[in-house]
Amino acid sequence: MGVIAVRCPNCGMKRDVDETFVRRTVKCLRCERPFSVKAAISALHHFSGSLVAGKYLLRELIGEGGFALVFRAEEVAANRAMRSVAVKLIYPDPEIAREAQAEELIAILKNSHPFIVHGISAGVCELGGLKWLYLVMELADETLDMRMKRGALHPREIWTVTEHIVSGLAFLHKDPDRLVHRDLKPANILRVGAYWKLADFGLAYAMEKSEHPGRPKGGTERYIPPEGFEGVITPAWDMWSLGVLLAEVFTGEHPFESDRHILFAITHMDPNIPDNLPVPFGEIIRGCLVKKRSMRWTAPQVLATLNAAQGMRATLSAYRWSFSQALNRLGNGKDAREGKSAARKSDE
């Protein structure tokens, strides 16, 4: 490990940091504002315009995660752009051999499924004086997180998202080569055309015959199941994350939102799930948020429940939910208007 130069994107001050800090956020010594070391390296060394693997021309930075940068890129041949792709640059985990991580990414490319983002190639490249793992993928239209920020999803749209994502999970969890995503959340679900797809599973854990007890590895705290905080990794991890995600999509709130620390709420409190969710989502969410992982619903169970609920009952339930949500929005708008009117009168 050595020392690398970075430039603060806020004030422009240049400083040196230890290479072990690449995955971290640091505070600028001049303006005292935090910044991502990865993004600062990218800006300083002009990653945009660089060529990866001799044929993927990086354009603009379109995403950043805890250990990766994602660029829109063009696959070029004979100086001509052939197609647009996404290139993910991953700074390797220093605790794991870089070659082993690269081999895992390449192995992931073999998993082809309609509801998993298509991987095109993977390997190791050097940019900014550092070696990065790279993963080339199909370019998505938007994330579920972006879609949620545009407004509430209709139950039929949520049905489609659920069916697609759970189909992808069923594929990952299948025997004998089970994979656990471990970071299922709205930002890692991408829409490509009419399909919603699982993404960012390149560092998923391959399941062996035993579980993986120990410290928590990976994941986003809000979506980690109770056993995940003890380092236990099984497909039940992903099903818990699915339950949290679906609750958020319907209500806009985390099912364990409270004045207690999120870890305590997840491990000791019951989830807050509305009773009037459209059929069969209340049942699915409750099944996914069972604290005892051996009793938690599986991906095939969720798919079977969706299939069994198709028809008039589910349609009517969806319309009732949509109608109740519309009334709530009208009520909130009316309350806001009355509040402003009262404020004006008091000022007078």
Plain-language structure description:
There is one protein chain. This protein is an alpha+beta fold and 348 residues long. The protein folds into two domains: 31-138, Phosphorylase Kinase, domain 1 (2-Layer Sandwich); 142-312, Transferase(Phosphotransferase) domain 1 (Transferase(Phosphotransferase), domain 1), CATH 1.10.510.10. The protein contains nine helices and 15 strands. The strands form five sheets. A six-stranded antiparallel β-sheet has the order 5-6-7-8-10-9. Strands 11-13-14 form a three-stranded antiparallel β-sheet. A two-stranded antiparallel sheet has the order 1-2. The longest helix is centred in the C-terminal third of the chain and has 36 residues, at 312-347. The protein is globular and about 60 Å long. The termini are far apart.
SSE topology:
Elements: E1 3-7, E2 14-18, E3 25-27, E4 34-36, H1 37-44, E5 51-52, E6 56-64, E7 68-77, E8 80-90, H2 98-108, E9 119-127, E10 130-138, E11 142-143, H3 144-150, H4 155-173, E12 179-180, E13 189-192, E14 195-198, E15 205-206, H5 235-251, H6 262-268, H7 281-288, H8 299-309, H9 312-347
Helix pairs in contact: 4-5, 4-8, 5-7
Features:
alpha+beta, 348 residues, 23% strand, six-stranded antiparallel sheet, Transferase(Phosphotransferase), domain 1, Phosphorylase Kinase, domain 1, 9 helices, three-stranded antiparallel sheet
Give a brief rundown of this model.
The chain is α+β, with helices and mostly antiparallel strands and 348 residues long.
CATH homologous superfamily (4th level) name of the largest domain: Transferase(Phosphotransferase) domain 1
- Which term fits the overall shape? globular
Number of helices: 9
CATH architecture of the largest domain: Orthogonal Bundle
Fraction in helix = 25-40%
Number of domains: 2
Bin the strand percentage: 15-25%
Radius of gyration: 23 Å
CATH fold-level name of the largest domain: Transferase(Phosphotransferase), domain 1
Distance linking N and C termini: 67 Å
Largest sheet entry: 6 strands, antiparallel
Query: Total strand count, please?
Result: 15
Q: Name the average pLDDT.
A: 84
- Which structural category fits the helices and strands? alpha+beta
* Oligomeric organization of the protein chains: single chain
Order of helices and strands: EEEEHEEEEHEEEHHEEEEHHHHH
Name of the level-1 CATH class of the largest domain: Mainly Alpha
Low-confidence stretches: none
* Strand order of the biggest β-sheet: 5-6-7-8-10-9
